[in-house]
Amino acid sequence: MKNSNICESFTPNSVYKQSIRWKRKPIWLPTGKTKMFRIPKRPVIPIEESIELKRLFNTYRTYMTSLRLYIQQMAKKYEVQLDERKLKQTEEEDFQACSAINDEWNASVAKIREVRLKAEKEAYKEKIFKIMMNKEEEQETLKKQANEQIRRVKEVADTFITAKNIDAAIEECLSNIVNHNRGIDLNGNWYDGKYPPTQVTEEVATQSTVNQ
């Protein structure tokens, strides 16, 4: 850093630099060697101008002294002597007024809170009632479905094979043998066991005999 300027780098690249020059010498630097023993020349003020400046300064000083004394007089006029009883009374009155305002606010807030809690309670009751109704409807639906299933089971309960009728069921199965080798033609006729020979089968057999 030199006396004339200060250089600062704003980027890591040394190419980009900005030089900041002072408009005047910084205050922390000592007096220059060329100006150390220089005696400044006193300004020459004309007598008329000096008299006018002195008059203006006296007027300003008079005005400021008057203003200062006026402010002191007004401060003494409105100054209240310290009275402990009066001070306590004033504090008590102020506390009572603030307490009354606070009580009024608390009462209004309590009313608003009471209305809000009542509305929330009614809404909660309505919500619980709807949930209970939905539960009852679900239970009723499940009960109907269960009764319907029980009714269907009771209808076919006679066909169930139990330990009591297992022998009779076995004898019935052995006596009534079911032949699954069945067929149906285009006319809706059922054929059990072996299918009867058709005309097409006879013709095919005759042709095979002739070919032999």
Automatic annotation (TrEMBL):
The keyword Protein transport does not apply. Keywords: Mitochondrion, Ribonucleoprotein, Ribosomal protein, Transit peptide. GO terms for cellular component: mitochondrial small ribosomal subunit. The keyword Repeat does not apply. It is found in: Mitochondrion. Belongs to the mitochondrion-specific ribosomal protein mS26 family. PANTHER family: 28S RIBOSOMAL PROTEIN S26, MITOCHONDRIAL (PTHR21035), SMALL RIBOSOMAL SUBUNIT PROTEIN MS26 (PTHR21035:SF2). This is Small ribosomal subunit protein mS26. It comes from Harpegnathos saltator. The lineage of its organism: Eukaryota, Metazoa, Ecdysozoa, Arthropoda, Hexapoda.
